[in-house]
Amino acid sequence: MEFVVVFLVSLFVLMLLVVGLLFGRAPTYRPDREYVLSLMQGIDDRSTTEQAWSLFIHTPISHDTELEGFRRRCYQFDQGEVDSVTARPGLNGYLYDLQGRNYIKQMATELEEFIRNAPLTVDF
User: Fold this and answer.
1) Which domain holds residue 78?
2) How far apart are CA 42 and CA 104, in angstroms?
């Protein structure tokens, strides 16, 4: 009797696993332009978490080449590869100091202008 119970429970768990693998999909990171803009603006008002920012700058964006350019610039800034400004940690919950926040704010303005001037496209 114990064998039958163990067999049925194991069969149920395996069937759940098979159904999950058949109908599930791999997790993807596909941020849109408005989300990235909100991340950049959140650097200045402390609404962007360190985890969300780190995920953005360390994960390549393959579905939008223009957005990948902005991500690379943010990554280069974070790694200290920009000559005009150094990425220093901020105080009181800010991710960067005032100079770094101004640099990200400038990039956010560029991204906002890019979003505003982007042509409308429809995928069929």
Assistant:
1) 33-117
2) 10
Please state the domain count of the chain: 1
Residue 54 lies in a domain: yes
Assigned domain for 65 exists: yes
Angle of helix 65-78 versus helix 98-117 axis, rounded to 10: 170
Tell how far CA 88 is from the center of its chain.
Answer: 21
Which DSSP state fits 79? T
Confirm whether pTM is higher than 0.85.
no
**Cα separation of 56 and 54, whole Å?**
5
- Answer yes or no: is 5 within a domain: no
Q: Tell me the pLDDT of the chain averaged across its residues.
A: 89
With tokens 């069969």, the residue in question is 11
CA distance 123 to 114: 20
